[in-house]
UniProtKB/TrEMBL annotation:
Pfam families: TIR_2, V-ATPase_H_N. One of its GO terms (molecular function) is proton-transporting ATPase activity, rotational mechanism. This is TIR domain-containing protein. One of its GO terms (biological process) is signal transduction. Residues 545-672 form the TIR domain. GO terms for cellular component: vacuolar proton-transporting V-type ATPase, V1 domain. It comes from the Eukaryota. PANTHER family: ARMADILLO-TYPE FOLD-RELATED, TIR DOMAIN-CONTAINING PROTEIN. InterPro entries: ARM-like, ARM-type_fold, ATPase_V1-cplx_hsu, TIR_dom, Toll_tir_struct_dom_sf.
Amino acid sequence: MQSSISEYCATIYNQRQTITSEQVKPIFDSIVDELNDENYHPTTDDYCKIIDTLKPISCFILLDQSIANNEIFHLIRNRLSNILNQWSQDDTSLTDRDECLFREIVDFFRTMIKHLRTTNQVSSSNFKTWFLNESFFKTITTTLEDIPLHSSKYLNQDQNMTSFMKLIESIQFFQAGNDHIRNNPNILLLLNSITKCLCSSTYIETLKNIDIKSEKRNEFENFILGRCPSFCAWFRGKFQITMIDGLCLNNMLKSYQEIYDLFLPSINDWEYALMESIYCMTALLRYVAFYPSTRKYLKANLKIIDSMLIILNSNCLLDNILKTIDYNSKTNLTDSAISFIFNLINDFNMLTIIKENSFFSKEIFLGLKNAQVDRVKLHALMILSKILNEQDIANLDDIEELTSVFMEYLSKAMNDSCCSFQDVPVESLLICLKAFIQHDEIKEEIAKQDYFSLLIRCVTQNNLHAGLVLQISLEIIWSLTFNNRIREMLINNYEPFFVYLKEILVNSTEEGVQAAAKGILWKLANDSSPRKSIGDIDENNTSGKKYDIMISYSHSNKDVCHQIYQNLINLKYNVWLDFKNMQENTLESMANAIESSEIILVCMSNPYKESPYCQSEAQYAYTSHRHIIPLVVENKYRPDGWLGFICASKVYVDFTKTDFEQAFQKLISQIQHHRQKNTIISPPSAMNHEMKEPVSHDEGTTSTIEVQPITSEQHTRIEEQVKELYCTSIPIYIAV
C-alpha cells in the first residue's frame, strides 16, 4: 500500500514558516490515520521523515494546547520504546537507520522540554500527559537495568549510549524544580533502576579501572560514572530518601570507601576523567550525611569522613579553590566534600566524631573561608561557626570581614525569591549565625556594623517564616540582648519591635516562638528591675530551699543529664529538672527553681553555650549566688566566654573522661563537700551580664560604638511596655 505520509510531511515543510496550529492539527490527524492503518506497516524511514518535518516547526505551535497531546506524539514515543526494547535484547543490534531515529527522537524531545522549561509551561502543558507514560518508563528502566548486567554489549556503542544518556538527561531536566512531576510514580521507577546501576559491581569496577591520567571518558563511562550518579545527586523529590536508603542498604558505603582508599593517595595527580567521576560519587554521598535516618550507616563507615577531610586538605584542590571563580571538576569535588561535612555538623554526635578525627583541622576550614567560589566559602564559614571557640575567634585578624561576609550572604538569601543563597536556605544560615554569636567579638561586630536591623527583618518579614526561621531569629536576638550595646540599641531604636513581639505573644501558636519572644522580654525586664538584691542572697543559706539540686542543661545532652537526674533521685535527693517539674516551663518558673535550689548543676557543652535559655539560667544562678557545680557533658569541652566566666575557679566533674559511675561518684563528693563546709564563703562580686573580656582571652581593647542616650521619658515608656508585655504574656514552653 502506498503511503501518503511523505505528501503530508511535504505540505507541512513547505509552510513551516507560516503554518498555524489550526492548520497543523488536521495534517497531524491524517498522518496518525496512516500510521494506524492496519493494512500499512510504518517504516523507520516514515518516522525519520516525520521527525525531520517537525523539527523546523516552532515549539510554540507544537506545544499549543490543541496540539501538544496529539496522538502523533504518542506514536513517536511508542516507536522510541520499540527501539529501546530491540536495543536491550540479547544478540540484537540496531540498524544504522534505527540508531539515527533513536538519536533524532531524543533530540526532538530535548528541544520540546527545553522550550517548556524556558517558557515555564512544564506544569500546564499537555506534553506531560503522554511523556510520563508508565509503559514508556518501564521500557527505559528495563534498558537501564540491562546495561550493568550486560555491560560488554554496550561498551563500544558510543552513539547509542550518547542517545540514551541524553534521554535520561532530558527526563532529569524535565522534572527538576517541579514537585508534581518529580514525585510522579514513573519517576520513582526510573530512580530505582538508576540506583540499581549505582549499586552494581559494574559501577564499582568501571570506576576502579579509570586511568588517573586520562583526560576523558568513553560514552559508557560517561553514562554510568557521570549521568547515573548525577541524576540521583540532584534529584529533590520525595523519593530521594528512598534512593539514599537503597544505596546504604546495599552496603555501597563500603564499596565507595574502597574507591577512596584506592585513589586518594594519588589525588594530586588526578586528571579530568577520575576527578569528575569521584566528584559525582561524592555529590551523591552528601545526602547520606543529610538525613538523620541514613547517618547511622556512616557510623559503621567512619572512614568516609577521613576521605572527605583528605579531599578538602589536598594541595591541588586548595590551590584551585583559592584561585578560580569558575566551576570545574576540582571545584565541584571540593564543594561536594565540604557539603558532606556541613550536613553533619548540626548533629551533635557527628560533630564530635568529626572534631576527634585524626585528619580534622580547623586550619582546613580557615583556609577554605578564602575560597573564590561563594558556595564553598559559605559552607566553610558555617562549619567554622560550629568548631571555633572563643580563643580562636579572638585570634582571627579578619573578624570584621568574616562577620560582614556572613551577614551579606544572609541578606542575599533573605532577598532571594526562594529564600536561599547558593542552595542554602535562610534557616540554615540562621542556625550557624546562632552558633557564631555565642562569641563576644561577633556580638560586637554585629553592633558595630549595624547588622541588628537585618535580624529584626528576619523576625518581621513574613515570607521568610518557613520552618524554624522565626524561632531561631528571636533566639538570636535574645542572645544578643546579653550584649549591653545591642540591648541599648534595641531599646533606643526599635520601639516598634516590641509591638511586634506583642503580636507574636498573642497570635503565635508555636511554642518555641513564644518561648524566644518571652525570653527577650524577660531579659530586658530583669535587667531593668532585678528580682532580688544580690546582697540578700547567700549560697550557703539552705533554709527554706525546696530542692537540693537543680540541673541546668541543653536538650542536646539530655541522655546523660537524665541519667544523672535518675541516679540522684535514687539517692533520695530532691532534684528539679524541667521535664519533670515545670508545668509550663516559663522563665519565671526557672527563676523560682533557681532561688529554691541549694545547688545548680551546669551541664557544659557547645549547645549549652549557644542556647540563650541556658545562658539565662546560668547567669541567673550566678547572680543569685547559688552554688554551681560545672559538669562536662561534651567530650574535650572547655568553657569560654560567658560560660567560662561563670565557671571560673570551680572544680569540673567530667562525665566524658571516665565511665559514668566514676564521674557520678565525683559529683556526689562535690555535693557532700559543699554541705560539709562550716565556713561561710564571702559572695563574689556581682557579675556584669556582658563579659567584654572572657577569662581565656589576652588583655586588649574592645571596640566601642556610640549609642545615643534616650530621654528618661523614652526609657520609662520602653520599660513600662516591656514589663507590661512580660507580665501579661501567656505561659509558654521553653524548648532548648
